[in-house]
Specification:
The complex is a heterodimer of chains A (234) and B (761). Chain A is α/β, with parallel strands linked by helices and 234 residues long. Chain A contains six helices and ten strands, in the order E-E-E-H-E-E-H-E-H-H-H-E-H-E-E-E. Chain A has one domain: 3-Layer(aba) Sandwich (Rossmann fold). A six-stranded mixed sheet of chain A has the order 6-7-8-3-9-10, with helices on both faces. A four-stranded antiparallel sheet of chain A has the order 2-1-4-5, covered by helices on one side. The radius of gyration of chain B is 33 Å and the shape is elongated. Classes of the chains: A alpha/beta (234), B alpha+beta (761).
């Protein structure tokens, strides 16, 4: 049994017209179960590509990705969908809630696709929204919307919780709240959380930091004693 | 620079622009095409009538003298007069056709139009012959024709072949449904061709009044002046040929005016929403332009020009293509019935207006959409419009809501949240359902007319028309040999509520040849006293059961007052019907004009006095030929309805799809299978399609009713849509709608989750 996530020599190329752009170049790393991981790097470094590949939203050009001992690189559309459905929770920069559904319904949506979801009410309570469950997204603040989105991701009890710049659209105070929530999810419920960000200040709070530059992993750091998110110096 | 931007924007959004383009073309094309057809006929017939100086009044009588003419000329508003002798003569041609011979004193009114041979000249010897008649008889210019007129046989050289404004619809009389050039034709004979010693009993005075409107006034003057000295005074609307042509134009106008307007409205509506949403999607760019310092006016102008160009280009193409494509198709039908010197499509100012409307529709929707975006400060415009808030609906309060499951909740909310989009989707379906039902229903209705007329109502097998001078012995012989029913049909005038209409009087002897039914399709008996009035005529005159009206047979002076005892509905032959008994009650006797034979009748030896025999099949065929041009028109409409339906539905579908890409991408990321998302969209589509169809059914019926009500006064059609048609229309609409949905939902697979979720927009 290896690590939960194994990224092996992954190369990803995009064809932009005539030219090929190499977004990832022989990227390799491992992530252990239950880790709170931050992928750091400037824009264009390929960190989002890593996340998309991890989440089964995109396919690799070369190399392999092994999740829980299963190689997902050969998956077809249906298998990828099933993988997203059962194993991955997403949190996006722009929340991407369904505007026509209330907070509660946005989370309950998961019940439609997953066999054994967590209880919707208690999940929403765990992100501190027990009193605002029946509001529509537009009636919630940005931070609240992001919490709904976290609840939605967590509710399916995924193997992996992937967050793409989850604080990108929020002010720093709200951002810290959100990040602490994610850290708490990892610590208390044992979720494996991967956060993509360009904010280096988050690094001290992570179990593992993967730094990326120009499509390559430039540095990997194991952090034996991560600090609590609230103590991070912004 | 901005022009370049426009061209590129059009390229990027080509589906939308192409569909707007097509809708603009179609909307204008159908409108102008159908319009140009009847308008062309109207312009040409008006021109023909004016150029050949068609009279506005015909006074028929016996032997009018030059003094009579002077008296007519003395009347106010009379512009010109001319005496004419018109008489039906026999020829030595096989089949014994009837030739209606005209001899004129001078060629000033009602002039023939020569298509071959010499110009018509009253001072030249010879005969000028109806060219359709000549074709049917195999005669050409230079041939010699033997005619038997006024007791003498004479040989006449054919000098020319002609058309005539009085014979646009070339029938002998009202009882003939269709022109039969093999048995009837007309000719003009010059005065010179007849022996000078022969006195000519001019039996018609042709009168041209200063305008057609004056003819009624002059007519009543004539009636006063010539009391007892005329058999009939016809105005243009009483003249068979003129009336038939007008009728045809009216019918074409009825269908050609209502339908395309609805068509145009639907196209306009679709153009409007498409444009609005197109502009809304350019919100950020509007913000950028504004931030760059472009003036509001310049930006407005830029976006309005999108609509203007497309609308103008589409409209102009439609304007040119419509009259080029549609009228020639319809004219092929018309040409077999009507004889006009020229057939052309004519554009009227209305057609220009339709282009202007198409341009305005596109332009205005751009203008308003753009202005809405422009009211924001640049900073706000640069960010996407905040999503519209969801709202709790009354539905959710019910316990029912929780049990509905996500699919239904999502769909209901989605429909309610984007009301406009949902309404437009439903309206698109309603529109195509309405058009289809209207077109197919009209087809049913029109073809139902002949089966109603000759299947349900007229149950006899053939109609034996009698000669006017038939002897009593001959009548007796026919009565004994042919099982059937006597019928008298005469042209009458009806006056009631200040209105005067020409109509048909039908007097029926004992028998069962014709069944009468009321508007609820129940069989009614004709009363032994009083009269039965046709439903349409009652409507036109504003008369109810039990009211009285005045009528008289044309050519007679005595007005008869009768009480309406029965109302019956008949597709053709609007007027009064009564039993022989009731007719006797008025002190009159039935003078049969035809015998309705219960069994198929073959001309038997020994029976005389028979003018012609029309078997039922002939009647049905004639009847259907008459309705052919409408059928053709309906076919064009169906085709156009299907195309428009596809374009509108596809267009609305594409728009609502692109608007929802982000939501759909989210569902995809969350792990919904494509097929699950498709089923979600399909369900919404089915709901809206059902709603649209439900609304479209009364819409279709309503429009058919409306078109029928604007049709001519002589035809009474009842809206009739068979179940099969209804089901067919529903299926076609469903297939169109579902097909479009299917094509679009295939795109779900190709939604790029990454980019649709990342992009700010």
């Amino acid at each position: 049994m290896g690590a939960l996530i194994q990224f092996k020599n992954v190369t990803k190329e995009y064809a932009a017209g005539e030219v090929k752009i190499r977004a990832l170049d022989e990227v390799s790393f491992e992530i252990e179960k239950g880790e709170f991981v931050v992928i750091l790097g400037p824009s264009g470094a390929g960190k989002s590509t890593v996340l998309n590949l991890l989440g089964g939203m995109d396919t690799v050009t070369k190399g392999s990705i092994i999740i829980d001992d299963v190689d997902i690189t050969g998956f077809n559309d249906d298998k990828l969908t099933a993988y997203r459905r059962n194993d991955v929770g997403f949190v996006f920069q722009f929340y991407n809630l369904i505007p026509t559904l209330t907070a509660y319904e946005n989370v309950a949506l998961i019940q439609e696709v997953v066999k054994n979801p967590l209880d919707v009410r208690s999940t929403l309570a765990s992100v501190g929204l027990e009193n605002r469950m029946h509001q529509f997204p537009t009636q919630l603040s940005g931070g609240e919307q992001q919490r709904v989105s976290i609840a939605r991701a967590v509710c399916k009890n995924p193997k992996l919780l992937l967050c793409d710049e989850p604080t990108g659209a929020l002010d720093s105070e709200t951002g810290i709240l959100i990040l602490s929530l994610l850290q708490k999810m990892s610590r208390e419920h044992g979720h494996t959380v991967v956060i993509v960000t360009h904010n280096a200040a988050l690094a001290p709070a992570a179990d593992r930091v993967i730094k990326m530059r120009s499509g390559k992993v430039s540095e990997q750091v194991r952090n034996p004693a991560p600090v609590r998110m609230e103590e991070v110096n912004w | 620079m901005l022009f370049k931007k426009m061209l590129r924007d059009m390229k990027i959004n080509r589906t939308q622009f192409i569909s707007i383009f097509i809708m603009a073309i179609l909307g204008v094309l159908v409108l102008t095409g159908l319009h140009a057809e009847w308008y062309g006929m109207k312009v040409e017939s008006d021109r023909y009538y004016a150029e050949n100086r068609l009279p506005t009044l015909w006074m028929m009588g016996r032997n009018y003298s030059p003094e009579d003419v002077k008296r007519v000329e003395g009347l106010d508003k009379v512009q010109a007069t001319s005496r004419r002798l018109t008489v039906d003569v026999e020829t030595t041609l096989p089949n014994q056709p009837v030739l209606r011979l005209n001899v004129v004193e001078e060629n000033t009114l009602s002039k023939p139009h020569v298509v071959d041979g010499d110009a018509f000249d009253i001072h030249q010897q010879g005969i000028w012959l109806d060219h359709t008649f000549a074709d049917a008889q195999g005669l050409k210019v230079g041939d010699v024709l033997t005619i038997k007129a006024m007791g003498l046989e004479s040989q006449q050289t054919i000098r020319g072949l002609i058309m005539h404004p009085e014979y646009v619809y070339n029938v002998k009389d009202e009882s003939e449904l269709l022109p039969h050039p093999e048995s009837f034709g007309f000719a003009y004979l010059s005065r010179e061709s007849l022996p000078q010693s022969l006195p000519l009993p001019f039996n018609q005075i042709l009168i041209l009044t200063e305008s057609e409107k004056d003819s009624e006034a002059v007519k009543s003057e004539l009636e006063r002046l010539f009391t007892g000295n005329y058999t009939a005074i016809l105005s243009r609307e009483d003249h068979v040929s003129v009336a038939m042509m007008d009728n045809e134009i009216e019918q074409n106008k009825a269908v050609g005016e209502v339908f395309p307007v609805i068509f145009f409205l639907i196209a306009a509506l679709a153009m409007l929403t498409t444009m609005t949403r197109m502009i809304a999607s350019q919100r950020t760019q509007i913000g950028v332009l504004k931030a760059l310092g472009y003036s509001k006016r310049k930006i407005l102008f830029h976006y309005v020009s999108y609509g203007l160009w497309i609308g103008l280009a589409g409209g102009l193409i439609g304007l040119v293509a419509g009259p080029l494509i549609i009228p020639p198709i319809l004219f092929t039908m018309q040409k077999s019935l009507y004889i006009l010197p020229n057939w052309y499509a004519a554009l009227s100012p209305v057609d220009g207006i339709s282009v202007v409307l198409a341009v305005l529709c596109c332009g205005a929707s751009c203008y308003f959409a753009c202005r809405r975006e422009l009211t924001e400060v640049p900073a706000a415009a640069l960010r996407p419009r905040p999503p519209r808030a969801g709202r709790h609906t009354w539905l959710e309060k019910s316990a029912f809501w929780q049990r509905m499951g996500f699919n239904r909740q999502w769909n209901i909310r989605d429909i309610l949240r984007s009301k406009l989009r949902s309404i437009m989707a439903a309206v698109g379906v309603t529109g195509s359902m309405t058009l289809l039902l209207c077109a197919f229903g009209l087809r049913d209705t029109v073809s139902g007319v002949s089966s109603r007329m000759y299947g349900e109502l007229h149950t006899y097998e053939s109609r034996i028309h009698l000669q006017e001078d038939i002897s009593q012995d001959a009548l007796k012989a026919i009565e004994e040999r042919v099982e059937g029913q006597w019928i008298q049909e005469s042209a009458i005038e009806i006056a009631a509520n200040g209105k005067e209409k020409t109509a048909t009087l039908t007097v029926l002897g004992e028998g069962t040849g014709i069944v009468y039914k009321d508007e609820k399709n129940r069989v009614v008996e004709l009363p032994p006293k009083g009269i039965g009035l046709s439903y349409k005529m009652a409507q036109v005159l504003g008369i109810k059961m039990g009211d009285t009206l005045k009528w008289r047979i044309i050519g007679q002076e005595e007005w008869i007052t009768s009480e309406v005892h029965t109302l019956y509905r008949t597709p053709m032959g609007q007027g009064i019907t009564m039993t022989e008994e009731a007719y006797k009650d008025l002190g009159k006797t039935l003078v049969p004009t035809a015998r309705l034979a219960y069994k198929a009748f073959d001309q038997e030896d020994g029976l005389t006095g028979i003018k012609n025999v029309r078997a039922k099949d002939d009647l049905i065929r004639s009847f259907n030929t008459m309705l052919e041009s409408i059928q053709m028109m309906i076919f064009i409409l169906i085709l156009a309805a299907v195309i428009l339906g596809v374009v509108v539905l596809y267009n609305l579908g594409v728009l609502s799809f692109t608007e929802r890409v982000r939501e759909l991408a989210t569902l995809k990321v969350l792990g919904f299978f494509s097929r699950e998302i498709r089923s979600l969209l399909r369900k919404q589509n089915i709901w809206l399609t059902c709603l649209g169809i439900l609304l479209g059914i009364p819409g279709g019926y309503g429009i058919i009713d409306f078109i029928l009500s604007t049709m001519s006064e002589s035809i009474d059609m009842q809206t009739k849509v068979t179940w099969l048609t209804l089901v067919l229309c529903i299926i076609i609409t469903f297939v169109l709608s579902a097909g479009v949905n299917f094509m679009l939902s295939r795109r779900i697979k190709t939604i790029d989750m990454v980019s649709s979720l990342k992009a700010v927009e």
